[in-house]
Design brief:
The protein has 212 residues and is mainly alpha-helical. The protein is built from nine helices and five strands; from the N terminus they run H-E-E-H-H-H-H-E-H-H-H-E-E-H. Strand 4 and strand 5 form a beta hairpin.
Length: 212
């Protein structure tokens, strides 16, 4: 059996060969990350890779849609069936009539889909838009010049994010998400929708300040 001294000349060549193999394997994903950083204006810091949060807000005509429910796939999952059995048992224990169960089930599905929409919106909304919604909520409406003030302030605070942004697109995003509507020279709050959005953020503990 070879001794350690006899094997020593072969150690470093083996280590170097292994390192080259690892580099070749990691090169494609590293290149993809660097390409994305260059495209989106991100940077590598001591905390890791950071991308400008505001760049995730897509044009309002290309917003991703929440997927429709795929019932066969949903029902095929054992964990879903197990939870359904538990819910059915709870309903039996509480003597909830079958017709009432259908109504409650429909409401639960509606709640889940609405929360998905809210979470998607939170991913792409700018902090200045959230601030504006908080401002308009108590009053119900503000004039468009007041809304423009929030956008102008965001442009000053985050020039890199908003250097190619327009106020009309900033406001249209809130309209397409059904948070506000435009009436003459006023921006009118869709109060129920805004409150439900904020309620979802509180439940999901997403109340931290966003940039943009």
């Amino acid at each position: 059996m070879p001794t350690i001294a006899e094997l020593q000349p072969f150690v470093w060549p083996a280590v170097i060969t292994l390192a080259l193999v690892v580099v070749l394997l990691l090169l494609p994903p590293i290149k993809r990350v660097l390409d994305r950083l260059a495209r989106d204006g991100g940077k590598i810091t001591s905390r890791g890779i950071e991308l400008p949060e505001g760049r995730s807000q897509q044009p309002v005509d290309r917003l991703p849609k929440v997927e429709s429910v795929n019932w066969p796939d949903l029902l095929a999952l054992p964990i879903v069936r197990s939870l359904a059995d538990r819910i059915r048992d709870d309903a039996d224990k509480q003597n909830i009539p079958k017709e009432e169960r259908e109504r409650l089930l429909t409401l639960m599905i509606a709640r889940e889909r609405l929360d998905k929409e809210h979470l998607l919106t939170h991913r792409i909304i700018f902090g200045s838009q959230i601030s504006f919604l908080m401002e308009i909520l108590p009053f119900g409406r503000v004039n468009i010049d007041q809304a423009r003030h929030f956008f102008d302030r965001a442009v000053i605070e985050y020039p890199d994010i908003h250097k190619s942004s327009m106020f009309e697109d900033w406001l249209r995003f809130l309209v397409t998400r059904a948070f506000v509507k435009i009436e003459n020279e006023f921006v009118v709050a869709e109060t129920d929708n805004i409150q439900d959005f904020f309620g979802c953020l509180v439940r999901e503990r997403l109340t931290h300040t966003k940039i943009g």
